[in-house]
């Protein structure tokens, strides 16, 4: 590997040392976050920034707490795959109601730490949670970022029934709920879920991977009662993973909901003192997916449920005392209802209900209040951060889908004002809010800026200890074809227009749920590296990708391959007409996951346009992918067999005439390696030469430098097959 790839691998793609997972505490006075100590440190610790003093304090150092870590519990390891978390150390934490204490799991052990600001602006830390013990041998000696000694009490370990997953404190921090094995526990207290063969307190695969719900238990506001998911998976098939490099080890397996097959049965239960249990009652047969749940008050639970094809989404209010539910709103769509806008649904202080909706004709994702639209076609709403000084704080796109602004929206008049925007260069802005305090993020060509603005107007910058981005990339962002498809073009640094023809590398995703063409700077670093190897790097967000409009996204309905390939080809040809240095006689294509599907599809169906492909972790036959994703877009296999047959790459194998490199991780629990192996077998049976790279122990996230090693191998492949000097 060259210097860039080694640096990218060592820094986890320039993320180690960057603060993440921000949470406000103490009514906006405290800002909690996770961060490692530098650009090559993989182990995230728990920090707090006290706005009274401007001091950053390391409250929990994972290496001091657990000097010799063991393996992660299987549930946490798989959740990290679901949410694409590559950092080691403390993966997540949860705050108490007052935001002055936090609990977290560390390699299956349970810890609690407190931070108590004093009236003078200093801080003291509290002791163990009730029923806990002090483990001084595992203590972390925290230090503020400025190096001032910190003499507060260290994190306290709380005894647990077994390896801990997803701990959550109640409102006052006196009790912590957590999952161990398949059971839900509290500390102090013990097991509170029955031993009935189901999994309690967790999110099933479909919810965590596809529906945006990664948790399965929620404390009531009074801190006495829990809402818990019960997940029964006995009807599901088992997916098995064996490591061929270690045949002496037994295989792993887990329940997987394959398209057309059974889903997990999900129930929600209220678990109260003394073994009191109440099941929430809705038509789970008609609406099997629970995409959101939580307590609105001690007297009301809100839950969002969906039918199997996700064409009908219901917001329900539930009475925790009886389990009875009532419909609060209903959203329908003849194709599918887009996933929830983060921050919705939400009840405003005056009782009105804020939900997401599409404008007529699907021109924009919008907000509605009690069913009445608040925003129009000119605003693409992406998230709601809450209320700020009486107005809704929203993240949205205004001018171009590559950018994002932070807006204030008056819920009474619909008046919009811009809080954060850069008009000079494309930028992606984000925001979090609490108690009048704001954390503003701006990601653009010069990197990522984070500004903490207090309610009284003071500003702080949480320290970013990550490696500075090597390249300042200025991609050419253009909307092309009559459909105004978003595209980007990255050229070699120092390239002089007209000086030489450049082979083209199409590098992207192309599938629903992920936007590639964005002003966020980290995603352009590797594309600049590819460009500097002698390529013109093209990325296309074809129909089906998000943030252009709901209608743009829904155009992919039941025709993945047709829409993806049509737009990719048309956009590539349009860019070639605009930029004369693109050599359309030498076009390579690469991608991972759906991007791998796009790459293989390109050379199989359009060898006249695409001349070589590297396809990683491609879902080659969607009959073997998961229910919630696949059926949303393609329908049920039994009802639409011709759709699934048309979208399969395996049946296309005899058509291969171009060089194809197939890559799969043999520990990939998202796109199982059988997808790639089935295509390879079909190619072999058809007598079509290709290359296959199967990587033992590698998951869908390609951790620990795997991505960079693959890039080096792909470079040699494309140089050879496209005759790149």
Explain this structure.
The chain is of the alpha+beta class. The protein has 3 domains: 17-191, no CATH class; 357-466, no CATH class; 476-722, 3-Layer(aba) Sandwich (Rossmann fold), CATH 3.40.50. The strands form 11 sheets. It has an 8-stranded mixed sheet, sandwiched between helices. Strands 1, 2, 3, 4 and 5 form a 5-stranded mixed sheet that branches. A hairpin with a 5-residue loop joins strand 24 (300-306) and strand 25 (312-318). Helix 1 (3-10) runs antiparallel to helix 12. The longest helix has 19 residues, at 560-578. The radius of gyration is 26 Å and the shape is globular. Residues 120-150 have low confidence and may be disordered.
Explain the layout of strands and helices.
Layout: H1 3-10, E1 20-25, E2 30-35, E3 43-50, E4 55-60, H2 62-65, H3 74-83, E5 88-89, E6 94-95, E7 101-106, E8 109-114, E9 116-117, E10 123-124, E11 156-158, E12 165-169, E13 176-180, E14 183-187, E15 190-191, E16 199-200, H4 205-211, E17 217-219, E18 226-232, E19 237-241, E20 252-256, E21 265-271, E22 277-279, E23 289-297, E24 300-306, E25 312-318, E26 325-332, E27 346-347, E28 353-358, E29 365-369, E30 372-373, E31 380-388, E32 391-397, E33 405-409, E34 416-420, E35 428-434, E36 437-444, E37 447-453, E38 459-460, E39 476-480, E40 485-490, E41 502-507, H5 525-532, E42 536-540, H6 550-554, H7 560-578, E43 582-592, H8 594-605, E44 612-616, H9 627-634, H10 641-647, E45 660-665, H11 674-685, E46 691-695, H12 706-722
Parallel strand pairs: 3-5, 41-42, 41-43, 43-44, 44-45, 45-46
Antiparallel strand pairs: 1-2, 2-3, 3-4, 6-7, 7-8, 8-11, 9-10, 12-13, 13-14, 14-15, 16-18, 17-18, 18-21, 19-20, 21-22, 23-24, 24-25, 25-26, 27-28, 28-29, 29-30, 31-32, 32-33, 33-34, 35-36, 36-37, 37-38, 39-40, 40-42
Helix pairs in contact: 1-12
């Amino acid at each position: 590997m060259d210097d860039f790839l080694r640096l990218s691998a060592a820094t986890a793609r320039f993320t180690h040392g960057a603060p993440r997972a921000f949470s406000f505490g103490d009514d906006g006075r405290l800002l909690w976050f996770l961060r490692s100590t530098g650009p090559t440190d993989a182990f995230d610790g728990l920090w707090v920034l006290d706005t009274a003093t401007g001091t950053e304090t390391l409250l929990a150092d994972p290496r001091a707490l657990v000097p010799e870590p063991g393996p992660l519990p299987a549930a946490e390891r798989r959740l990290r795959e679901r949410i694409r978390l590559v950092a080691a150390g403390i993966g997540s934490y949860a705050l108490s109601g007052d935001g002055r204490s936090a609990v977290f799991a560390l390699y299956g052990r349970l810890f609690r730490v407190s931070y108590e600001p004093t009236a003078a602006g200093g801080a003291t830390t509290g002791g163990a949670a009730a029923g806990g013990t002090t483990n001084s041998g595992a203590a972390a000696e925290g230090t503020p970022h400025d190096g001032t000694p910190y003499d507060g009490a260290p994190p306290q370990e709380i005894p647990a029934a077994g390896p801990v997953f997803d701990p959550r404190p109640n409102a006052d921090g006196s009790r912590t709920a957590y999952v161990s094995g398949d059971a839900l526990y509290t500390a102090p207290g013990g097991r509170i879920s029955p031993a009935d063969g189901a999994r309690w307190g967790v999110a099933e695969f479909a919810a965590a991977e596809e529906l945006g719900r990664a948790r399965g238990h929620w404390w009531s506001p009074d801190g006495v009662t829990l809402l818990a998911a019960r997940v029964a998976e006995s009807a599901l098939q088992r997916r098995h993973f064996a490591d061929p490099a270690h045949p002496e080890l037994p295989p792993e397996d887990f329940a997987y909901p394959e398209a057309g097959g059974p889903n997990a049965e999900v129930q929600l239960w209220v678990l109260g003192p003394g073994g009191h249990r109440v099941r929430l009652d809705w038509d789970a047969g008609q609406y099997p997916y629970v995409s959101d749940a939580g307590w609105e008050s001690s007297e009301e639970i809100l839950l969002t449920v969906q039918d199997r094809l996700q064409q009908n989404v219901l917001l329900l209010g539930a009475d925790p005392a009886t389990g009875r539910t009532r419909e609060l709103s209903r959203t329908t769509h003849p194709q599918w209802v887009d996933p929830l806008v983060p921050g919705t649904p939400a009840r405003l202080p005056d009782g009105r209900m804020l939900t997401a909706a599409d404008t007529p004709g699907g021109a924009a994702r919008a907000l509605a209040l009690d069913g009445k639209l608040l925003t129009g076609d000119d605003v693409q709403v992406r998230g709601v951060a809450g209320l700020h000084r009486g107005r809704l704080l929203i993240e949205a796109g205004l001018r171009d889908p590559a950018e994002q602004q932070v807006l204030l929206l008056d819920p009474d008049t619909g008046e919009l004002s811009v809080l954060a925007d850069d008009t000079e260069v494309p930028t992606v802005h984000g925001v979090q809010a609490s108690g009048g305090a704001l954390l503003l993020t701006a990601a653009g060509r010069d990197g990522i800026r984070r500004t903490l603005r207090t309610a009284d107007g003071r500003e702080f910058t949480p320290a970013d200890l990550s490696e500075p981005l090597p390249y300042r990339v200025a991609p050419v962002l253009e909307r092309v074809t009559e459909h105004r498809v978003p595209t980007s073009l990255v050229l070699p640094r120092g390239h002089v227009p007209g000086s030489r023809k450049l082979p083209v590398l199409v590098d992207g995703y192309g599938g629903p749920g992920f936007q590639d063409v964005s002003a966020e700077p980290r995603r352009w670093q590797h594309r600049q590296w590819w460009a500097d190897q002698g390529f013109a790097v093209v990325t296309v967000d074809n129909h089906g990708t998000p943030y252009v409009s709901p209608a743009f996204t829904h155009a992919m309905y039941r025709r993945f391959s047709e829409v993806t390939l049509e737009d990719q080809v048309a956009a590539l040809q349009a860019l070639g007409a605009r930029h004369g240095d693109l050599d359309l006689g030498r076009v390579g294509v690469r991608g991972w996951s759906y991007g791998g599907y796009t790459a293989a599809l390109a050379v199989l169906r359009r060898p006249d346009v695409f001349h070589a492909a590297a396809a990683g972790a491609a879902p080659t036959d969607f009959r073997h992918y998961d229910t919630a994703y696949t059926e949303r877009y393609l329908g049920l296999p039994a009802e639409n067999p011709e759709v699934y047959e048309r979208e399969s790459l395996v049946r296309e194998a005899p058509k291969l005439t171009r060089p194809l490199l197939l890559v799969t991780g043999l520990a990939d629990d998202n796109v199982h390696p059988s997808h790639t192996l089935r295509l390879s077998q079909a190619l072999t049976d058809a007598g079509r030469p290709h290359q296959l790279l199967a990587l033992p122990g590698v998951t869908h996230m390609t951790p620990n430098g795997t991505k960079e090693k693959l890039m080096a191998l792909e470079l040699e492949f494309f140089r050879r097959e496209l005759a790149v000097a």
